[in-house]
Amino acid sequence: MSLDLRELLRLVVERKASDLHLTEEEPPMLRVDGELVPTEGPRLSADDTKRLIYSVLTDKQKVQFEETLELDFSLYMPNISRFRVNVHQQRGAVEAAFRVVLLNIRSIEELGLPAIVGKLALKPNGLVMITGPTGMGKTTTLAAMVDLINTQRRCLVVTIEDPIEYLFRNKKSIIKQREVGSDTHSFATALKHVLRQDPDVILIGEMRDLETIATAMTAAETGHLVLSTLHTPDAPQTIDRIIDVFPPYQQQQIMVQLAGCVQGIVAQQLLPRKDGLGRVVSTEIMIGTDAVRACIRERRTHQLNTIVQTGSQYGMTTMDKSLKELYSRGIITYETAVSRAKNPQEFRNL
Q: In the CATH hierarchy, which top-level class contains the domain 115-349?
């Protein structure tokens, strides 16, 4: 039986999986609610994986992949969905991961995010970061925030993504989506020119390097709202990661800059639901209060956890408190909550 990629991608959507993995010596694998599940198809040979993957690549993409051995792009399959695709090589075999990008953008409420996330999205300026490990819904949260801006504000939003995932239609706002590789050469290049495009809001798919982070902070300081992501588990580590990207002689200046522009950090993770019906989001939220800004300015990041614990009147919450709430509402199991807690012993005491 000859496998067809279109049918495999249709299966991904039907099974409500988040990812499809095509790997040599394995059947096509789905990630359902965070767990890898094999399909009933045959094990794939290296020829199978290459044929399936190359069936959706343009000639230009094939040349690019064969030169660099890495390729990221977005793929639209009519009547199925959009996908974020990473093609790579493993022990000589061409392999790929397909991540489902839902066509409809869900609201902050539908995602189960706290209302404070919506308030951060509507800030007039400053830096808002969504953090967490890969595959924890950061892009989906950003899309919900941009959609809220699009619904409520008349402004110009420029997104710089690698690749473009969610597609936005203009409502009250004008949204320009630029893809690294096809619309611009890099995040840093796009950011260097973005301020001349008269944006009110700038979305950066990921703050990857010193130049991107520095330009993002400058934009946030100069009256723009900047939304971005980092692969960090919580607010203190996010602050440290940003500062540590810079050489020691620049760090004092960066701490002052960051303290001045940070509006909030939302750390999130997705957890399997107790009823087996998908996953639910758990969040830790830090808001840029005077106390938080003072800690960043003086690099007392070890004190940020205490401020978050005691800052509920500002909308702050710790990851452990969020987990406790999900457990007490019967949405996740006790074992899940303890396994994802920042401090398992303290969580048990909660």
A: alpha beta
